[in-house]
């Protein structure tokens, strides 16, 4: 089975409405949960999934302790786990105290070995990705305006057809227009209908 990718437009910070360059993104088929991972790892070994789960739980506790004590933690061929911090920006180190600095996230620096093992993997285009060039923002808005002149609502499927994009992209853009106050949604997300916000002058 091949891993999949999909193409996304680069951001358009100046809101020119012009078509932007596309870049590839990994399109996961799903997530292998912990229990499934234990079962896969136990296959062909003398270990049971329960034993592997217990071992990983113990390792996790030790990893947390080591990080709290100020160490990075190497996870075999996977990579090294480290902490990233956040705090307000200052010009002078005396302007900030330790109490105001906190953990922002955990960062996994993958090992060279892991990267080498993933190089050359088979990739194929996500079949739900764009099948044609998507409309630019201005043409999309014009198409939406024309739709709302004849129809009070638009469904996600109709928007997807107008936009020429996959389902996830359609949902993302519709939700963005709701946040911007341009559209209102009625009903559950899967069966929901979208209506032009009458308080807005145009789409």
Q: What's the total number of strands?
A: 9
The top-level CATH class of the domain at 130-196 is Mainly Alpha
Query: Residue ranges: pLDDT <50 for 5 or more in a row?
Result: none
- Coarse shape: extended
| Helix fraction bin | 25-40%
What's the main sheet like?
A: 3 strands, mixed
Number of helices: 6
How far apart the termini lie comes to: 43 Å
Give the second-level CATH assignment, the architecture of the domain at 130-196. Answer: Orthogonal Bundle
Instruction: Kindly report the CATH topology of the domain at 130-196.
Output: Arc Repressor Mutant, subunit A
Describe what this molecule looks like in 3D:
By secondary structure, this protein is α+β, with helices and mostly antiparallel strands. Among the domains are: 72-119, no CATH class; 130-196, Arc Repressor Mutant, subunit A. The chain is 35% helix and 22% strand. It contains 6 helices and 9 strands. α1 (34-42) crosses α2 and α5 crosses α6 (167-179). The radius of gyration is 24 Å and the shape is extended. It starts with a strand and ends in a 7-residue tail after the last strand. The relative contact order is 0.11. The mean pLDDT is 87.
